[in-house]
Design goal:
three-stranded antiparallel sheet, globular
């Protein structure tokens, strides 16, 4: 659905592109969110935290915020809920007690280890609507766009 805005040509083109990009991402996100909720009884934010810890190892809450582009208050709630369910632990770093480090528990590692392969397959299937070359081009375009945005989220 194109924009109904009738401004400058560059603005209309940018708005049309933004709408298409947002709709595609929202559709993919809704699909992935449904599967994560059904398969793991967790939210996408919780999944993101578990995935980051699986692939990067223990992280400070601040590092998790930056990785997932979430606010500090939001990540605190997400981690609180993961901790209550026994999927993560928090510890203060001995060298800097201001920093709280988050790590997977055995049950958290088991959960994300079970969920992630199916998640990766779903993403591959969803992006399979594009050719390999188109996926690579889209990735390059997104990287360029991301680098051009200088304001932190």
């Amino acid at each position: 659905m194109p924009t109904k805005y009738r401004g400058a040509k560059d603005e209309v083109r940018a708005l049309d592109t933004f709408i298409k990009l947002a709709r595609a991402m929202n559709s993919m996100h809704a699909n992935l969110t449904r599967h994560v909720a059904e398969d793991g009884d967790i939210t996408m934010s919780q999944f993101g935290v578990l995935e980051a810890l699986l692939h990067l190892g223990p992280l400070s809450q601040g590092d998790i915020c930056q990785k997932l582009l979430l606010s500090g208050s939001n990540i605190t709630t997400v981690i609180d809920n993961l901790e209550k369910r026994g999927f993560v632990t928090r510890t203060r770093r001995p060298d800097d007690r201001r920093v709280v480090e988050v790590d997977l528990t055995d049950s958290g590692r088991k959960l994300i280890g079970r969920l992630f392969p199916a998640h990766a397959r779903r993403i591959a299937n969803l992006l399979g609507a594009l050719t390999v070359k188109e996926q690579e081009q889209l990735g390059a375009l997104c990287r360029t766009l991301g680098k051009s945005i200088v304001e932190p989220v």
